[in-house]
Amino acid sequence: MVIAISVREIVSFALSSGSIDTRYVSHSRAMQGTVIHKKIQEENLKLIKGYSKEVYLTMDFDFDKFTLKVEGRADGVIEDGGVIVEEIKSTNTNLVYIDENFNELHWAQAKFYAYILCEQKNLKNITVRLIYYCLLNDETKTFEKKYTKDELKEYIDFIIKQFKDIADYNIEWKDRRNGSIDEAGFPFKEYRKGQRELSVAVYNTVREKEKIFIKAPTGIGKTISTIFPVVKALGQDKIDRIFYLTSKTITRTVAEEAFKILRKNKMNIKTITLTAKEKICFKDEPKCNPDDCIYAKDYYDKLKGSLYHILKDNDEFSRTTIEEIAEKYKICPFELSLEIAKWCDAVICDYNYIFDPTAALKYIFEECTDRISILIDEAHNLVPRAREMYSAEIRKSDIYKVKKLMTGKAPKLSGILGKINSIMVSYRRELEDDQIVQKIITSVPKDLSKMLKSFIKEGDEFIAKNQGVEGIDEVMNLYFEINGFLNTLAEVDDCYINYVDTSDRDVIIKLFCIDPSTRIKYKMNAAKSCVLFSATMTPMDYYISLLGGDENSYRMFLKSPFDSSNLGISAVPLSTKYKDRENTIGDIVEIIHDTVSLKKGNYIAFFPSYKYMENAYKLFLEKYDDINVEIQNNDMNEKQREEFLSKFEDKEKNILAFCVMGGIFSEGIDLRGDSLIGTIITGVGLPQVCFEREIIKDYYNNFNGQGYDYSYTYPGMNKVLQSVGRVIRTETDRGIAVLIDDRFFTNKYKMMMPREWENMNFVRDKKELKKKVEEFWKKN
């Protein structure tokens, strides 16, 4: 059996020691480092004879029970007479403070690559070159060491030895895992309608190293139907690891339950659910250093002594399990979860762990990715999330706040921030003169970019020398914000629009990623296979174009397993356009009241905005007092959300809840049976008109002539589909949905309606609506 591991991982495992100390380390630096690598490599290609960049190297180490396959990419290899292995490291540390012994891990990676080359090319000696690039002043510092093959072999043997014990256990585990997966069948007696077809399609996608986009309606059991075939592929050694990505806690829980079902079905499989650092940290706020946190102190040493036992004793690493283990060994729960993820068969996590350029799992994903399969649940949510991930902004208010804090404490830092503040003030004056509040700019001015870099340089020294002083947290937050902005600025291309916004008594300069598709595609193409699925992936071409697919991407449309007659769905032709709302809100409130009065039970009335919802709610209370009414608040915390949903479980209380489409209660909640028997949806869900929406519209008008649909129509209809989808959750559910808007009667919207709405009633007025709803309840 083969265990594949990257050079970076095995070196880090063998040589890391001491404590976690991130007082002054930004994850965004990795992105910045990537840009610098490319820059140096391109220069070397032009200047150095025999230079090759990103040289893939791999070597097998044979043991009794397994073969260890170590692989990675050397930054550069020079073959011109002798052979030189080049390793590039970017840093914010002044190069004056860096000598050849600055970090043993940096040498270790290069030495591993050097040893592989010695073996492959039968070299007796080789040179290792380590280049440090200072991000603050674009200066470089180079060190070189010559090694014999025997010296490198002794060094590499030591590293391999540190890894072997846990590798032996990993092989034993994989043998047991694969045997159990091979023997186990589908965990239920029979497939639901559509489940077998879905499972076969997913398995073939993994086997053929492709990506597939799937519209899978509620009730098919898409979670188990996508996980089961990928686990089967795992057991056949077609892949090494599964990533199950989702943006919501409830779908994360459903994935955990699916893996539990497989374990009950005698499948041995290790899984972990990753929780954000801010949520899982034992401290009130994460301060990852040995002075402020006992869980950071001596972390690497404590981990080495406990990791084998942790993996041996557990198969399911939920948040609770991770917290218990971390408390037992007094180690950081977040860092522990990242380490355990390397040894698990399946990782359940948020989208950002794969797609965000600053994600914590980037180092796993960038190496050995051709053995990874990615399952993306509720994939329609990845579009807005990706836009956020790849965009960046700076705010004048943040600049000015830190400037005031540093006045008198750090004159140079305060002076730089003063200049940045002045540049942003000049933007505000310019927009005031033009009598506008937002403006697209072709590029970020060079003087601003220069000052931002100066802040990073000066902030670097200030943070390093002033830990614990008043205002240091604010300086660090701004440091990371500006660093991220500069990193994104280096990557800006035709998929971006830069703009200035002064609408909220602030000055914001934003690098807005309109089209994230190329960046999503880059990540997905690195994996062996990707499965993207959602109950509301409509229109399919829209989502394929934004999520990195193309005309050759596999696509699949599944029918709902539920009888379409279980849902009584009707559309009423009333205008909900902004200009007509005052005139029609009375009729809408009356429709809501009359509909919920026809049968006792719980209902949700969805609206496209908080203001519209609140106006309807107030009018409803003025006119009616015979129904228990609740309303969604704008800033509910997790406890308040749970309390809100718990009211639907009280069958004695008939609840009418006023909620917002696209909000926390229109997606990802699972109210089965009598917990919810109807929804009334007002409007077509169009996002509110704003500057960014107009930018998206203009961009896609130029790109494909579908700007309005890409910016407004399709995202809005997705909210409608999600809201209707709250009603029928199981094959025994019965319920009604009422769509209030005359636009639902147009061909454009009819074309977007799913097949399970085949019994849609397009009624003339509220009188006919009442008749249709009454008829439905008489039959059900």
TrEMBL record:
Keywords, ordered alphabetically: 4Fe-4S, ATP-binding, DNA damage, DNA repair, DNA-binding, Helicase, Hydrolase, Iron, Iron-sulfur, Isomerase, Metal-binding, Nucleotide-binding
Name the UniProt record assigns to this protein: ATP-dependent DNA helicase
Organism for this UniProt entry: Inconstantimicrobium porci
Keyword set includes Aminoacyl-tRNA synthetase: no
Gene3D superfamilies: 1.10.275.40, 3.90.320.10, Bacterial XPD DNA helicase, FeS cluster domain, P-loop containing nucleotide triphosphate hydrolases
InterPro entries: ATP-dep_Helicase_C, DEAD/DEAH_box_helicase_dom, DinG/Rad3-like, Helic_SF1/SF2_ATP-bd_DinG/Rad3, Helicase-like_DEXD_c2, P-loop_NTPase, PDDEXK-like_dom_sf, RAD3-like_helicase_DEAD
Source domain of life: Bacteria
Gene Ontology MF: a single term: DNA helicase activity
Signal peptide: none
Residues annotated as domain Helicase ATP-binding: 181-441
Membrane listed as a keyword: no
UniProt cross-references to SUPFAM superfamilies, sorted A to Z: P-loop containing nucleoside triphosphate hydrolases (SSF52540)
GO biological process terms held by the UniProt record: DNA repair
Entry's family note: Belongs to the helicase family. DinG subfamily.
